[in-house]
């Protein structure tokens, strides 16, 4: 696959998303219902005019006029086309709108549950079949699977065809059809359960008891949490400044989404474990941007806080040493309670940012207003408080955002942008250079959800500020 640029592929969630439209319909339904109540009340009040004492007495003087007035009042209040009937029409419309939203939300939930169940069953079937594939001797295919386990679903479905493809052709195929990876990973719990199905029941139960694993793992989150529990974690160790001999960074105030990503890239160029806290403005007007790079090491449980253990913990919904270190660094930076904060993270850093934004213990201390993620799986965080705006950038050919196994929730305060910027390699698609291009595409877009997010970032002073800027660097590792 050659380097190219297909622009923005899709924008979901945010002010123009489906859930926002559902909310708008519900709001309109409440207005209709309230208006109907008011019209009905007025209808019965106005109907009382016909029994007004003065009007009734005047009927003796002009019976015909009284009858005409009485008929007009009754027609305008409780007659066909009157206020009472208009009230009923409004309330019926309100009920219909509420029912439609309820049905549509229910259909969305049923679809999601069906996909979850199907992915689990496919994963379990694949897990049960893998030993047979190994015994059959699949040669080069198995070598490729060992290096790239995300190819397993393709191998299971097309064992004959896949053997004819080179490794690069397989990678290219996945970049063109990332949904295959997403569904395979979403069935990760079933995959492990299927592998365990090959064991005799007694051996299986003994192994599960020895490792402390649950007997079933309906979701990838379940198996990730179980596997993370097999390894010891420690407290974070936070030191001020970067690596010895490293020049202090001085990041500029970002003027755009692309600038936010480029600043994050500069932080990422530092030593392992480093994060930057950028202060914009002074005194009560100060705002803080926290730059959070991603995975440094694919080891597990070592001194690196940003390792594979942290990835497992995040997918499993567990707190990491990296997250604890971020909180400590923000405390050391002197971020006062109530000061506006934006968390900007790449890969594992974006996962951590989303998790922190959903943690009441963290948001009670820090006033998180924005989260910007690049190449980060965040669907494992089901809910972000309404007052926090999340913008997630996902490159179509980047497999990492798919490792949560499902699409990000469509919520009014969560906007997900998928763009197409292939580089010819999996690593290049995940790199911050690609996400800089994604940020530029967002800056140029007039999509309503993106326009709302960009406007809010400017209003909150995180983008486009001319206030003075200072940068503090902290290094987070696992304590010995």
Automatic annotation (TrEMBL):
Biased composition range(s): Basic and acidic residues: 452-461
InterPro entries: AB_hydrolase_fold
Residue ranges with Polar residues bias: 467-480
Region (Disordered): 403-480
Protein name: Alpha/beta hydrolase
Organism expressing this protein natively: Nocardioides ginsengisoli
């Amino acid at each position: 696959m050659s380097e190219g640029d297909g622009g923005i592929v899709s924008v979901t969630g945010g002010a123009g998303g489906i859930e926002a439209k559902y909310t708008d319909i519900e709001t309109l339904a409440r207005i209709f219902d309230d208006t109907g109540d008011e019209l009905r009340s007025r209808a019965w009040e106005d109907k009382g005019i016909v029994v007004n004492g003065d009007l009734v007495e005047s009927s003796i003087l002009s019976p015909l006029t009284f009858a005409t007035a009485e008929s007009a009042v009754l027609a305008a209040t409780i007659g066909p086309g009157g206020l009472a009937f208009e009230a009923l029409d409004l309330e019926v419309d309100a009920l219909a709108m509420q029912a439609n939203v309820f049905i549509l939300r229910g259909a969305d939930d049923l679809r999601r549950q069906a996909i979850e169940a199907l992915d689990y069953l496919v994963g379990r079937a694949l897990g049960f079949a893998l030993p047979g594939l190994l015994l059959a001797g699949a040669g080069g295919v198995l070598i490729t699977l060992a290096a790239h386990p995300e190819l397993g679903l393709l191998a299971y479905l097309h064992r004959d065809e896949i053997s004819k493809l080179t490794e690069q052709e397989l990678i290219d195929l996945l970049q063109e059809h990332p949904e295959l990876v997403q569904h395979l990973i979403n069935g990760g719990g079933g995959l492990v359960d299927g592998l365990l199905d090959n064991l005799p029941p007694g051996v299986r139960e003994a192994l599960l008891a020895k490792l402390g694993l649950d007997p079933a793992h309906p979701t990838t989150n379940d198996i990730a949490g179980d596997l993370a529990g097999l390894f010891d974690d420690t407290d974070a160790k936070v030191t001020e400044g970067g690596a010895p001999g490293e020049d202090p960074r001085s990041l500029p105030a970002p003027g755009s989404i692309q600038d936010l990503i480029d600043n994050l890239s500069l932080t990422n160029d530092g030593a392992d474990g480093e994060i930057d806290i950028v202060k914009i403005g002074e005194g009560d007007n100060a705002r803080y941007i926290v730059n959070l790079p991603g995975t440094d090491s694919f080891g597990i449980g070592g001194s690196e806080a940003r390792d594979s253990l942290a990835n497992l913990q995040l997918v499993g919904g567990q707190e990491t040493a990296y997250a604890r270190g971020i909180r400590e660094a923000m405390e050391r930076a002197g971020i006062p309670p109530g000061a506006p904060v934006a968390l900007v993270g790449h890969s594992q850093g974006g996962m951590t940012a989303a998790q922190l934004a959903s943690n009441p213990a963290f948001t009670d201390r820090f006033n998180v207003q924005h989260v910007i993620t690049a190449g980060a799986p965040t669907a494992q965080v089901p809910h972000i408080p309404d007052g926090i705006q999340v913008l997630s950038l996902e490159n179509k050919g980047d497999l990492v955002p798919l490792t949560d196994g499902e699409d990000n929730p469509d919520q009014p305060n969560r906007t997900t942008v998928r763009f197409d910027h292939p580089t010819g390699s999996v690593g290049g698609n995940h790199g911050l250079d690609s996400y800089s291009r994604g940020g530029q595409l967002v800056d140029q877009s007039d999509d309503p959800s993106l326009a709302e997010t960009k406007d809010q970032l400017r209003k909150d002073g995180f983008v486009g500020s001319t206030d003075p800027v200072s940068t503090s660097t902290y290094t987070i590792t696992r304590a010995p």
